[in-house]
Amino acid sequence: MVGIGKGTKMLRTMLAGSKKYTAIGLLGKATDTLDATGKVTEEKPYDQITKGDLENVLQKFTGDIMQVPPLYSALKKDGERLSTLMKRGEAVEAKPARPVRVYSLSLQQFQPPLFTLDVECGGGFYVRSLVSDIGKELSTCATMQELTRTKHGPFTLEEHALYEDKWTIDEIARSLEHCTSLLPGEPSHKKLKTEHPGETAVSCEDK
Predict the structure, then answer these.
(1) pTM, full prediction
(2) Domains, the chain, ranges and CATH?
(3) Could you give the dihedral angle defined by the CA atoms of residues 175, 180, 182 and 184, in that order, rounded to the nearest 10 degrees?
(4) CA distance 24 to 48
(5) Which residues of 191-203 are buried (b: 16+ CB within 10 A; e: fewer)?
(6) Ranges 54-68, 71-85, 88-102, 127-141: which has the least confidence
(7) Which pairs with CB-CB distance under 8 Å and at least 24 residues apart come from 55-62?
(8) pLDDT band at residue 205 under the 50/70/90 scheme
């Protein structure tokens, strides 16, 4: 999400609330990044795993849980991202487990070695770590293949995404007006005024 000029004041409100994702995991393989972009670091059999096994495991990852963030992440050490340090080949220690919240977690599809999850979570949660931890809990390994954010706060991919064929000034303005109406306590024009007219803010989450 990008905020330009007066819009930078609204980012905190827009970025509040839970997030919902659809994630596709791959059983039997682990990578250094915990997703499909990384190098394979481990392979284990998975044929013994059933749909019921996977559904039972998901219960352990619902609610308030502790999670260890991935080494390849936007978290920082001495002012630098862990992912940058890892790419330079520097030794990086895993961050300690921290509390995160999972509001809901369900299995949508199971076609070994692939499985599809629907997860709604709070801030600071890494879906890559979830998929990896599920693999370990099943006595195998797993890595995330695909990730799609389907909801953030009051905004959903289905209702509020503006597709390329509607990238016109009028459609963009109409979409912004609709999305802004969903925000609680919409600030007045005066409150949106900034000391730096060219100020731009970017929020980027590496999940």
Answers:
(1) 0.72
(2) 18-152 (3.30.2350.10)
(3) 170
(4) 19
(5) eeeeeeeeeeeee
(6) 71-85
(7) 55/107, 57/134, 57/137, 57/138, 58/105, 58/106, 58/107, 58/117, 58/134, 60/137, 61/102, 61/105, 61/130, 61/133, 61/134, 62/102, 62/104, 62/105
(8) very low
Q: How much is the pLDDT for 101?
A: 97
Label the pairing between strands 114-121 and 98-111. Answer: antiparallel
Note the Cα 126 to chain centre separation in Å.
6
**44-82: burial string, b at 16+ Cβ within 10 Å, e else:** eebeebeeeebeebbeebeeebebebbbbbebeeeeeeb
Report phi then psi at 6, rounded to 5: -65, -25
